[in-house]
Every structure is written in C-alpha cells, then in structure tokens.
Amino acid sequence: MSILFQNARFLKSAATLTDCPADIGAEIAFCGRSNAGKSSAINRLTGQSKLARTSKTPGRTQLINFFQLSNQYRIVDLPGFGFARVPKKVKAEWHNNLDIYLRERVSLKGIVLLMDIRHPLKKFDNILIQWCEATHTPLHILLTKADKLKRGAQSNILLSLSKTLPEEVSVQLFSATKNIGLETLTARLAILFGEG
C-alpha cells in the first residue's frame, strides 16, 4: 500500500499526552527549533498550502498537531523550540509535554528533525539526536531552506554533517519553496512507516 500524503487531513491538536488521538497505528513526528520550517515542510509534503499553519513569529506552534494520512498512518507537528516569545513557565510546560510524548507514545515510529541549513546542530538538535540514539528511535534529518545557499555550500554542509552523525541517522537537503528533496523525503517516510 503506497502512502498518499496528499490525502492528509487535520485530525486534532493536543496540549498534553491525554489529549492525543488513540495510541494505535503509526506516526512520524516532525520537530525542530522555532522557524526551522516544520509547517512549510508538512504543507509541501502533502501538497496542501494551508494544512499546517505557518507563522512569521517563531514559536507560534504551541500544541502537538496531528494529521491523518490513512486509518493507520499519521504525521505529527511538534511545538517549535528555541526563541519563542512565551513566558518561561509556558516554555517549561511545552518541554515537559514533548518529553512525555517522545518517551511514552507507542505509535511513534520515527522522527524527522528539521534544521535550517545555515544554523545546523544547535543544542536542541544535539539533545534530540542523542535521545534517538539512546532509545533506538529512527531519525531522519532535513536540512531546510537549502535554496538559501549555493550548491557547493549545500554539499559541503551535508557531507560535514553526515560525518559527525551516528551511522543510523539519515540526512538530506530540503527546500519547501524550491521543491528540493521532496522525493527523498517521501521515500524515507515510507521506510519509517514500514512501507519502504
């Protein structure tokens, strides 16, 4: 069965793990720092320009947003991390909810970590990579906004990053605006869902 990403529809938003949909089937979570381009990547993947809400203000995505692909498959947009303009108490609550989701969600089959290619491997990125390695959670990295750099610079960063990452972590170039890397991403997601 091929996964029809264009059939994606918004399922629900959850503030806590108890608000999440039933923990059955398989889901892949998209996460990254604020402004890494999660919503844009999900919109490009599904071919729906307004499915995931994009914002010019980093950190607007405060809830865990679920999108249904089929009866058994979902993609998840996790809250952005970094310089969100919110009180520390609220930020701590986000971190706690994300931690619980990552540790306890049985249907979580893999993570797509998005990093702006111009600012890769920030503190949050390294923490998540280490967590995935320790828990044997499959991880795929998207170096977003690749169109902002020339081809040679893109290749250098991709090669450099590939050498520093654990062997089981996959990484690719991606640009939602220029449609770079979409086929690679869909193929990787199929593998994570167990369809590849």
The side-by-side strand order for the widest beta sheet comes to 1-3-4-2-5-6-7
Give unreliable regions as ranges.
none
Assign a percent range to the helix content: 25-40%
Q: Spell out the helices and strands N to C.
A: EEHEEHEHEHEH
Describe this structure in words.
By secondary structure, the chain is an alpha/beta fold. The chain has a single domain (5-192), classed as 3-Layer(aba) Sandwich (Rossmann fold), CATH 3.40.50.300. 33% of the residues lie in helices and 21% in strands. The protein has helices spanning 38-46, 88-104, 123-135, 151-164, 182-192; strands spanning 9-14, 26-32, 64-68, 73-77, 108-116, 139-144, 170-173. Strands 1-3-4-2-5-6-7 form a 7-stranded mixed β-sheet, sandwiched between helices. Helix 3 links the parallel strand 5 (108-116) and strand 6 (139-144). The protein is globular, with a radius of gyration of 16 Å. The N and C termini lie close together (10 Å).
Lay out the secondary structure.
Layout lengths: L8 E6 L11 E7 L5 H9 L17 E5 L4 E5 L10 H17 L3 E9 L6 H13 L3 E6 L6 H14 L5 E4 L8 H11 L4
Parallel strand pairs: 2-4, 2-5, 5-6, 6-7
Antiparallel strand pairs: 1-3, 3-4
